[in-house]
Design brief:
This protein has 400 residues and is of the alpha+beta class. The protein has helices at 57-69, 90-107, 128-134, 145-151, 205-218, 248-268, 287-299, 301-308, 314-323, 352-362, 389-396, and strands spanning 2-6, 17-22, 34-49, 75-81, 115-118, 160-168, 173-181, 194-199, 234-239, 276-284, 334-337, 340-344, 347-348, 366-372, 378-385. Helices cover 32% and strands 26% of the residues.
Length: 400
């Protein structure tokens, strides 16, 4: 058994990790726009990336390093820039990363096998000179999680970070922390965001990918804001092992709580979002079909706009289920807004009283829409938000 406690420090909380944010002039008014994460010892690293076929240059560079170094693939430094995605930039985009990494390694002999991540506008080459000039501002001894989490933000309304200390029954402990950004281009195919997780737990390399993938399935792979999958999605897990402690069950649970919190924060921060909604699908033919159905609901623009208007239009829910391609039968379907049943087994329960009750549910900041398909035992819950005027405004002006 184990206990888990929230602590301060975010991505700097684990032993041996440092981070900060600096200004390279990519954002106006000298705002921080480049973050770094540094470990005093080499880290095992595992990543999950976007499913977009046009993945960005930092992802291509990571995969090249992984293939080149194979079993020796470790790092102790990650550089993250905002405002520029370095995506669809061809070979030049990768060369620009290599130039920045080379500059880093020359300035700081402590840095080994540095990696890069980017977020921002697609189709623009990195301002290499600006970024390289800013590297002189890096202090590897800095523990400034606040600057780091602000530096990676783009359209986010607020920064996102969290950290835990996990104490085992014998009083040995390890720490885990993270920073994350994401608000738009969020789709359940990893989700469009950057998330960096650090831990001093001594996690075996062969456990990292398994645990990361399992927890992503129920968290970042289950959220949607607008149904668009970006070119830069990254979840990066760094383990430096400095605590010397590892318990698989405890680590997996702590990682899940980190990823659950941050993924729901991304939905809550959805561009212009006013509500967070859980789409729970039960009694599906299989878990996979439940997932397809739940994600269809969380992605539907018609459903999202109804949620924005607090309109309990259950017909849009039913229509989306029928269009999702899963096995379903109108005579077995049940639809609930929280505990308010509006449709059950072919019968409509949408009189004036129930409509008013359902409308009150939709006025809450968060609630659950449950759909029972009656075709099996499969289940899955996806998370989404409403979609309104502010989303259009933000994305119409994104490059400015």
């Amino acid at each position: 058994m184990f206990s888990i406690f929230p602590i301060e420090g975010g991505v700097c909380a684990a032993n041996g990790f440092f981070a900060d944010g600096i200004s390279a002039g990519l954002k106006p008014n000298c705002e921080v726009d480049v973050a770094f994460i540094y470990s005093t010892s080499m880290c095992e690293v595992e990543c999950l990336f976007t499913k977009n076929n046009f993945y960005a240059a930092p992802i291509a560079h990571y995969k090249m390093q992984e293939e080149k170094l194979k079993d020796d693939f470790k790092t102790n430094f990650v550089l993250i820039n905002s405002k520029n995605a370095n995506a669809l930039t061809g070979d030049v985009g990768i060369m620009n990363i290599e130039s920045i990494m080379s500059n880093l390694s020359k300035r700081f002999t402590e840095i080994k096998n540095p990696l890069m991540s980017s977020t921002g506008v697609i189709g623009v080459q990195l301002p290499v000179e600006k970024i390289c000039e800013s590297l002189s501002k890096i202090n590897l001894n800095s523990k400034n999680n606040d600057n780091a989490k602000h530096a990676i933000m783009t359209t986010d309304r607020y920064p996102k970070s969290i950290a835990f200390e996990v104490v085992l029954d014998d009083n040995r402990s390890f720490k885990i922390g993270a920073i994350c950004k994401g608000a738009g281009m969020i789709n359940p195919s990893l989700a469009t965001m950057l998330c960096f997780i650090t831990t001093d737990a001594l996690v075996p390399k062969n456990n990292l990918k398994e645990i990361l993938q399992k927890n992503a399935y129920m968290t970042f792979n289950a959220i949607s804001v607008d149904g668009d999958t970006s070119t830069n999605d990254t979840i990066m897990l760094l383990s430096n092992g400095q605590s010397g402690i590892y318990d698989k069950e405890a680590f997996s649970f702590a990682l899940y709580k980190i990823m659950e919190y941050l993924s729901l924060e991304v939905v809550k921060d959805g561009e212009g979002a006013t509500r967070v909604v859980a789409f729970e699908v039960l009694e599906a033919h299989s878990d996979d079909e439940a997932m397809v159905c739940a994600k269809a609901l969380s992605n539907s623009l018609l459903v999202k706009t109804a949620l924005f208007g607090c309109d309990p239009n259950w017909g849009r829910i039913a229509s989306t289920i029928g269009a999702s391609g899963v096995k379903c039968d109108a005579k077995r379907l049940q639809i609930f807004f929280d505990k308010v049943c509006v449709y059950k087994d072919g019968e409509i329960y949408f009189d004036r009283d129930n409509e008013e009750k359902a409308a009150k549910v939709l006025q809450k900041d968060s609630y659950k829409i449950t759909c029972k398909l009656g075709t099996g035992n499969g289940s899955f819950t996806a998370y989404g938000c409403d979609l309104g005027h502010e989303y259009v405004k933000i994305n119409a002006d994104y490059r400015s």
